[in-house]
């Protein structure tokens, strides 16, 4: 399928992209009810990128403006005895929603993880985030009915 001129471009992000990424990451945190903290957002991303602890994909519009991002963390699946990636963050700026940005980010994340040897991608989302759930299911993701997810603040 040919790319449209206005289709989002997705690329691997690096430290040089912090000015574009940090506001998106801060908005993502706010989407999930956290207080705005631009400095924390910038420092968090800078540390992950500098230490190669995560992979961040950046979506840009035709003019090169940041429109969304996703962040994945490499880890291992001990049952598969193979690498897996956890797609932990996915965010599209409100002005760019419903334009294929999230889909492009998800497809790029899947391709990158596969190219790097991952056997599986995992993610979780809020039960109330029905738009995200519809996107994931349209891309062939299946909801686990086998495992429950727990967390404990420390």
Give the arrangement of secondary structure elements.
Blueprint: E1 9-12, H1 18-31, H2 38-50, E2 55-60, E3 66-77, E4 82-92, H3 101-115, E5 120-122, H4 130-138
Parallel strand pairs: 4-5
Antiparallel strand pairs: 1-2, 2-3, 3-4
Give the oligomeric state.
single chain
Per the principal axes of the C-alpha atoms, what is the gross shape? globular
What is the chain-wise order of helices and strands? EHHEEEHEH
Average residue-wise pLDDT: 92
Distance between the termini: 48 Å
Strand element count = 5
- The neighbouring-strand order within the major sheet is 1-2-3-4-5
Strand-pairing-aware structural class:
alpha+beta
Alpha plus pi helix count:
4
Strand content: 15-25%
Rg, Å, rounded: 16 Å
* Poorly predicted segments: none
């Amino acid at each position: 399928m040919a790319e449209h001129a206005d289709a989002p471009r997705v690329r691997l992000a690096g430290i040089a992209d912090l000015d574009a990424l940090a506001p998106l990451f801060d908005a993502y945190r706010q989407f999930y009810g956290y207080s705005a903290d631009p400095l924390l957002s910038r420092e968090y991303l800078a540390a992950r990128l500098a230490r190669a602890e995560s992979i961040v994909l950046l979506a840009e519009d035709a003019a090169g403006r940041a429109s969304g991002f996703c962040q994945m963390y490499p880890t291992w699946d001990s049952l598969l005895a193979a690498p897996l990636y956890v797609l932990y963050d996915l965010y599209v700026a409100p002005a760019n929603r419903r334009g294929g940005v999230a889909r492009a980010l998800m497809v790029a994340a899947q391709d990158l993880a596969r190219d790097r040897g991952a056997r599986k991608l995992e993610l979780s989302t809020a039960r109330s985030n029905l738009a995200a759930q519809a996107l994931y299911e349209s891309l062939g993701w299946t909801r686990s009915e086998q495992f429950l997810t727990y967390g404990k603040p420390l």
